[in-house]
Amino acid sequence: MRTVALIPAAGTGSRLGLDRPKAFVEIGGVSLAARSVAAAWASGVIDDVVVIVPAQLVDEVARELPGVTVVAGGAERSDSVRAGLAAAGDADLVLVHDAARALTPPALFTRVVAALIGGAHAVVPGLPVVDTLKTVDNDGRVVDTPDRRVLRAVQTPQGFTAEVLRRAHAGAADATDDAGLVEALGEDVTVVPGEALAFKITTPFDLRMAEYLCDGSTQ
Ligand code: CTP
Ligand code: MG
Predict the structure, then answer these.
(1) Burial of 56 per CB tally in 10 Å (0-12, 13-18, 19+)
(2) Pairing between strand 26-27 and 142-144?
(3) Which domains, and CATH codes, for the chain?
(4) Residues 125, 57: Cα–Cα separation, whole Å
(5) What is the distance in A from the centroid of ligand 1 to the CA of 158?
């Protein structure tokens, strides 16, 4: 059984708004991408790691992160995941993990892989939603208030059998996460408990929060 982690790190980080691609912003001298790679290895359940980066950074990242495969990403996250999948070889299980979720505890990788070994074909970590969510129309008028007890805020790593993930990415469907493509195939997706520390660093506030949580440590 070979398990490969794909780490998409090829986005620009437009919402963070710094002068370098978000995954290469550092906390305590360690980039978000390097932290995510380290978490994958530390889980003990990953055999190989593929990091997907902006094309101009492939050589530099390959030097800085020995032991991982580095490939160039594409314009959309799904293009980057497809590029990573092409480099995943004969994987049995594939985990896809946003580089931007840089503080994710290694135990979350372990939990997702355990659910796959237990027989699930697609697994996502999810947290209960604490805010009340509203659907709105184009004028900002509230249309509906969904029952939050049935909602989950979904994170990564998302785990799949390689067969299901390849089929999902071969289709024409569009989705904001990999599990969404699997849902479009009509396949079941299983939710396991997420982790607050697996939050995605998206905005300047999130980066400050991550710096605060790391408290200057390089771990
Ligand atoms: N990603 C990627 N290739 C893309 C877009 C995103 O590999 N074309 C990666 C990002 O590097 C990130 C993860 O997918 O680790 C989640 O995306 P997001 O948080 O949206 O990051 P960015 O797209 O970089 O940020 P923004 O949307 O603010 O520009
Ligand atoms: Mg993005």
Answers:
(1) exposed
(2) unpaired
(3) 3-126+155-214 (3.90.550.10)
(4) 30
(5) 15
User: Is 218 a residue whose pLDDT tops 70?
Assistant: no
User: Among all ligands shown, which has an atom nearest to the Cα of 11?
Assistant: 1
Task: State the pLDDT at residue 219.
Answer: 60
Closest by CA to 156, choosing from 188, 111, 120, is 111
> What are the pLDDT digits (tens) for 110-134?
999 999 999 999 999 999 999 999 9
From 102, 101, 98, select the one nearest 35 (Cα to Cα).
102
Q: What is the pLDDT of residue 199?
A: 98
> What are the backbone angles phi and psi of residue 18, rounded to the nearest 5°?
-95, 180
* Res. 73 pLDDT band, cuts 50 70 90: very high
Q: Which atom of ligand 1 lies closest to the CA of 76?
A: 8
**Amino acid making up residue 156:** T
Pocket mutation for ligand 1, best pick of 19, 25, 77 (most atoms within 8 Å of C-beta) = 77
**pTM > 0.90:** yes
Residue 45, φ and ψ in degrees, nearest 5: -110, 5
CB 185 within 8 A of CB 164: yes
How far apart CA 30 and CA 143 sit, in angstroms, is 44
Burial tier of 38 (Cβ tally within 10 Å: 0-12, 13-18, 19+): middle
